[in-house]
């Protein structure tokens, strides 16, 4: 995974501010012209708290971060005159391919914070690497079907007229149609974890090309609807650490499901991973059981593993 973005609502109220920021429309050089002091001041005024030394300065306009021209037009059509504070900080960081954990209050524009970088990166990739059909480059997981529909709708508005197709993976609609759409070629998959697991365990779909993963409303996923799911991300370097991570996560909540993304770089761990899954009574995913790196033969069944790596 090259870029992981995790979003959560932050219920603490932002202090009211009557500050105005004037942005010159044609000023494309503002990012480099923001000094460290100005960056600090701006973050303080907007109540942006950043952890990590390498986070780029906030942007003051959408036009300043080299987005495709058509995307800028779509942003304007959507009625976004200037970025909201969370967008000011999250968009340049995501475009710089920094993984993010973002928390901002309800209605602060978090969706745009991850969709604008996704549309930009996917459209640029598709323009540069002409292929007869698109391949999944990004995936957004949200806790509910309704949220997924909203996110996909907004993605379509932002991606209009660009080489950028989307697919939904949610319950309530036939899986066959959703699978067909993915197979015909899309850049972004928006789905719920439950339906995604269902799809991955029942069908062979290649997600190797995905390099951007977003978990939206992760607070809600963990606290409410998905309290019973434990989500673990990229495979640690050892099985010991993997078992430890799953154990640690499950101690925080109730029994649940662990999802870990493995790829060929983890191949030396495959035999031990299969053993660990077997001894815990978990299902061994088809891809893992059939892998030439896993010793022996195992019956494939429902499972939660799927290899996944960047392009
Ligand atoms: N830069 C912007 N300018 C004007 N409106 C915006 C901008 N960005 C987003 N919006 C609008 O603000 C509303 C709220 O945005 P969004 O749903 O992304 O908030 P959120 O932070 O995800 O909230 P929640 O925590 O409730 O999910 C939407 O109607 C969206 O279209
Ligand atoms: Mg949201």
Automatic annotation (TrEMBL):
Top-level taxon in the UniProt lineage: Eukaryota
MF terms (GO), sorted A to Z: ATP binding; hydrolase activity; nucleic acid binding; RNA helicase activity
Protein name: DEAD-box ATP-dependent RNA helicase 41
Residue ranges occupied by any Helicase C-terminal domain in the UniProt entry: 150-292
Domain Helicase ATP-binding: 91-233
Pfam families, per the entry: DEAD (PF00270)
Motif mapping: Q motif: 60-88
GO CC list: cytosol
Keywords noted in UniProt: ATP-binding, Helicase, Hydrolase, Nucleotide-binding
Originating species: Capsicum baccatum (Peruvian pepper)
Location of the DEAD-box RNA helicase Q domain: 60-88
């Amino acid at each position: 995974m090259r870029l992981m973005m995790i979003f959560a609502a932050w219920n603490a109220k932002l202090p009211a501010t009557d500050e105005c920021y004037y942005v010159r429309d044609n000023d494309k050089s503002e990012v480099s012209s923001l000094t460290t002091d100005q960056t600090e001041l701006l973050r303080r005024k907007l109540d942006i708290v950043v952890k990590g030394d390498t986070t780029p300065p906030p942007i003051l306009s959408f036009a300043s971060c080299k987005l495709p021209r058509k995307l800028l037009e779509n942003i304007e059509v959507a009625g976004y005159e200037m970025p909201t504070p969370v967008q000011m900080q999250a968009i340049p960081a995501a475009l710089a391919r920094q993984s993010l954990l973002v928390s901002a209050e309800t209605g602060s524009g978090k969706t745009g914070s991850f969709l604008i970088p996704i549309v930009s990166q996917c459209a640029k990739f598709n323009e540069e690497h002409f292929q007869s059909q698109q391949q999944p480059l990004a995936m957004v997981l949200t806790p509910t079907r309704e949220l997924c529909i909203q996110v996909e709708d907004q993605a379509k508005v932002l991606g209009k007229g660009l080489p950028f197709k989307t697919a939904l993976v949610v319950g309530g609609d036939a899986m066959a149609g959703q699978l067909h759409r993915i197979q015909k070629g899309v850049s972004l998959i928006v789905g719920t974890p439950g339906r995604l697991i269902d799809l991955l365990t029942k069908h062979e779909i290649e997600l190797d090309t995905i390099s951007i993963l977003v978990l939206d409303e992760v607070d809600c996923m963990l606290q409410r609807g998905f309290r019973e799911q434990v989500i673990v991300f990229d495979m640690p370097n050892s099985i010991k650490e993997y078992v430890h991570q799953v154990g640690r996560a499950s101690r925080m909540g109730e029994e649940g499901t662990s999802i870990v993304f493995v790829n060929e770089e983890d191949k030396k761990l495959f035999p031990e991973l299969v053993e660990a899954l077997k001894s815990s009574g978990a299902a061994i995913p088809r891809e893992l059981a059939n892998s030439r790196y896993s010793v022996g033969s195992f019956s494939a069944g429902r499972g939660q593993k799927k290899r996944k790596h960047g392009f």
